[in-house]
Amino acid sequence: MSNPSESRNLALNRGQFLPIGLHCGGKDMLVLGAGKGAFPEIVKLLESGASVTVVASHASADLQSALLTHGERLRFLKRAPRQVMQLLDGELKAPSMVLIFGQALETDEEEELISFFRSLKIPVSVQLKPWLSDFSLPTYLKRGHLKIAVHSDQVLPAFEKILLSRLEASLQSQLDRMSIFIGQLDELIEIHLAAGGEDSLRSRLVDSLQNSETFLGALSRSSYDEALRLAQEHCIQFLAAQKQEESGDQSSSEAEHEQEPGQELNLRLDQELGKRR
């Protein structure tokens, strides 16, 4: 990985960031500086399940309030961010990722810290300095499992918020229903796997489902109840085929026997999903 000076020289030729979903549950994140823009990113990390340590010379009012509600996963160290290398020797354990905000450091200190973290294979994000950043958090809205994100490669984060607000306003009447559908579909799949399959089947089941033209057609029409019914039928057929494949017995009599538990499962699914509607 190139050092910060080399990265800055290549600023005009830098590649774009890849929007990805990152599992942060149980990970330790380090935030240096508590300037403007830091707190919303801290909230994103906490919502993702991460534990966050903030090192700054002062704590904002928002951060102080958050410390009361996220005491176990949010920690504030009143230190100058430049002291973080010394803190890592004892008071602070090595984080999974580092985010630097505001004017927390002088330029030479900033580049020294970035080089230090990269030597430890720890990715760094620097606010409004994409040429120094290994990653960048998008602006997003969340409804259960459903997330809609906007990213401008750190060119203008304020525009991300404006655009996301427009998207939210235009989709407001549909977002809640979309979110409920995703939650119901997830529960439906879990019920099927618990009743007739193993967790290892989930990826194959979902891949099969999302290649079903009738299921996708219902989604494209926003017919979510129909899509759930089709998903339920697809799951039963898929798992029945998996059982037959495993047993090696393709007889029609065995296929008929599979229909009875399928009917019982249908009733159970209707009861479970009905509670969420």
Question: What would you say the CATH architecture of the largest domain is?
Answer: 3-Layer(aba) Sandwich
Averaging pLDDT over every residue, what do you get?
Answer: 85
List the secondary-structure elements in sequence, H or E.
Answer: HEHEHEHEHEEEHHHHHH
Q: Quick one: biggest sheet?
A: 5 strands, parallel
| Low-confidence runs of at least 5 consecutive residues | 7-13, 253-262
Task: Report on the architecture of this protein.
- The protein is α/β, with parallel strands linked by helices.
- The protein has eleven helices and seven strands.
- Helix content is 52%, strand content 12%.
- Strands 3-2-1-4-5 form a five-stranded parallel sheet, with helices on both faces. Strands 6-7 form a two-stranded antiparallel sheet.
- Helix 6 (157-196) packs across helix 9 (224-247), helix 6 (157-196) packs across helix 11 (259-274) and helix 8 runs antiparallel to helix 9.
- The longest helix is centred in the middle third of the chain and has 40 residues, at 157-196.
- It is elongated and about 65 Å long.
